[in-house]
Design goal:
The protein is mostly helical. The protein contains 15 helices and eight strands. Strands 1-3-2 form a three-stranded antiparallel β-sheet, with helices on one face. The protein has a three-stranded mixed β-sheet with strand order 6-7-8, with helices on one face. Helix 6 crosses helix 7 (302-331), helix 9 (357-374) runs antiparallel to helix 10 (379-388) and helix 10 packs across helix 12 (418-426).
Length: 541
């Protein structure tokens, strides 16, 4: 509305200006402001017409200006109303934001007041704690001072006591300390030895009891027979005249046979029999089959010998593979490298102390599997370790070194598990035993090889082993007599009671056992018994 008023005022001013302009024009045309000499009516009419025209034109312009002003005013009013509405909305938003800000400010002020209150309380507590700490530090300082005074007083008293003790005992403090330490050390050693002996005895009794149970169960469930074999094979002939045909003209057949097979053919006075001798059992078996084929065929000459030898070699190879596969099937072992199966089958023709090695491995695997089951271990892994522990004996004639290390290298080459490799290389203690599987492999090997009738050894080696056992035990100080008993499986050591006490007797038994383990090779285990006997004799007269 204010804008409309302003526009109308402008229009009125414009009309006034137009009127003034018309008067000015009239004045100029009539000759200035001098009083007229008497204008004529025509002049007045003309002037009036011009004035009317000017007024009409001014009125039209004023109308146009007023129309435009009204339009502008309407536009301005619309814009003003829109701006007013926007301003009202903005004012409302601003008022809402102001209200929210006031609320947040009020909350922040309340939170700040609470924090200030907590800080004030914390400062108060810290001040109280600082006062308590200062009081405690003061008391500690007083206590330290008092303790220092008492320590000095105790040092003086201890010094006076030491001087008195040194005068009374005739020893210095260092000498008395040394005597006391030595006495305590001796007493501690004796008590420790007694405790160790008691613990070892208890552990040994419990271990022996459980081991006997496990071993007895394993041996009871695996009771196999062994046939002693040697390095000589005997082939029976249909008649003694066949010996001449085997020898041939000027010995050409026997020479061709020995050069082809690498086996010594022994023809002596034994009726209707010849001997085949060779350290390699596979070659010996191949030669036996070759000679058997030649005898059955009747045609014996160098070319025929070579043909029969090639066929026998293939047959022995197939027999070795079949023997290895049969062993795996019997033990329930699968997924073994074909080369290992072949080497395992070759042990069918190998003996150790008269015991067939392949049968020994199968028996050891059965024993190890039974003991592993009792101990809740992996049966398949332990049986695999026991079955392969002597695999190196198949190559001991071709490769230098211990059969345990050779076997471990072969097993590692053909992808066997590391526990299996370790059990193979450690079953004769050439490598320190680190796993339970290796221990069970050793136990199964010892049980299979040491049971009665499994192996044999020469009388000379047996006597030398017993003599060495007695020499080892006799070499220790304080030993009176030594007896090797139970075919060398027990050593009974008699000691002089005045030279050896109970603890030293235990030490002698342990040292003898350790030296026997390091120096001798024997099946099973040897028991060392140290006997200390005190006798008191008196005569009644």
């Amino acid at each position: 509305m204010d804008t409309v008023v302003i526009v109308l005022a402008v229009a009125v001013v414009l009309l006034a200006l137009v009127s003034v302009a018309a008067l000015v024009i009239v004045v100029r045309r009539t000759g200035g402001l001098a009083p007229p000499a008497g204008p004529s009516p025509e002049q007045l009419s003309a002037v009036a017409a011009e004035v009317n025209e000017e007024l009409e034109r001014a009125r039209r312009e004023a109308e146009e200006i007023r129309g435009r002003a009204e339009e502008d005013a309407g536009e301005i009013i619309r814009k003003s109303e829109s701006l007013a509405e926007s301003a009202a909305a903005m004012r409302k938003e601003v008022e809402e934001e102001a209200r929210v800000l006031k609320t947040e400010l009020k909350e922040l002020r309340a939170d700040l007041e609470r924090r200030e209150g907590r800080l004030a309380e914390r400062e108060q507590r810290l001040d109280e704690e600082a006062r308590r700490q200062a009081e405690r530090a003061r008391k500690l300082a007083e206590t330290e001072t008092e303790l220092a005074d008492r320590r000095e007083e105790l040092d003086r008293v201890a010094e006076r006591r030491r001087e008195i003790l040194e005068r009374v005992a005739g020893l210095t403090a260092e000498q008395a300390r040394g005597e006391l330490v030595k006495e305590i050390e001796n007493q501690a050693k004796r008590e420790a030895a007694l405790i160790v002996r008691e613990i070892e005895s208890e552990a040994r009794r419990e271990g022996e009891k459980r081991a006997c149970k496990i071993v007895t169960l394993a041996v009871q469930r695996v009771a196999t027979e062994q046939t002693a074999e040697s390095v000589v094979s005997v082939l029976h002939l249909p008649g003694d005249e066949m010996k001449g045909r085997i020898i041939g003209r000027e010995g050409r057949n026997i020479r061709a046979f020995e050069s082809t097979t690498g086996v010594n053919l022994i023809i002596d006075d034994t009726p209707e029999a010849v001997l085949l001798s060779c350290f390699d059992p596979v070659r010996r078996e191949t030669a036996r089959l070759t000679l058997e084929k030649l005898v059955l065929d009747g045609r014996i000459h160098p070319q025929r010998i070579e043909e029969a030898y090639e066929r026998s070699k293939e047959e022995v190879r197939d027999l070795c593979v079949r023997a290895g596969e049969d062993a795996l099937v019997e033990l329930g072992i699968t997924e073994m490298h074909p080369e290992l199966v072949t080497l395992l089958g070759q042990l069918r023709y190998r003996t150790s102390y008269g015991q067939n090695v392949l049968k020994h491995l199968i028996e050891s695997a059965h024993l190890a599997g039974i003991m592993a089951a009792e101990l809740r271990l992996d049966r398949d892994l332990v049986k695999r370790c026991a079955l392969l522990h002597d695999i190196g004996k198949a190559l001991t004639h071709e490769v230098e070194g211990s059969h345990a290390l050779i076997g471990a290298e072969i097993a590692r080459r053909y992808g066997e598990h590391e526990d299996v490799v370790h059990a193979i290389e450690a079953h004769h203690n050439e490598v320190e035993v680190r796993t339970v599987e290796a221990v069970l492999t050793q136990a199964a090997d010892a049980i299979s090889g040491s049971r009665p009738g499994a192996r044999r050894e020469s009388l000379e080696a047996y006597v030398k082993r017993l003599e060495r056992l007695e020499e080892i035990a006799q070499s220790y100080e304080g030993v009176d007599k030594v007896f090797a008993m139970q075919a060398g499986r027990e050593i009974r050591v008699m000691v002089r009671p005045e030279a050896v006490d109970d603890i030293q007797a235990q030490v002698i038994a342990r040292d003898v056992a350790k030296q026997v383990e390091e120096e001798l090779t024997y099946p099973g285990q040897i028991r060392i018994n140290v006997v200390r006997e005190s006798r008191a004799t008196e005569f009644a007269r």
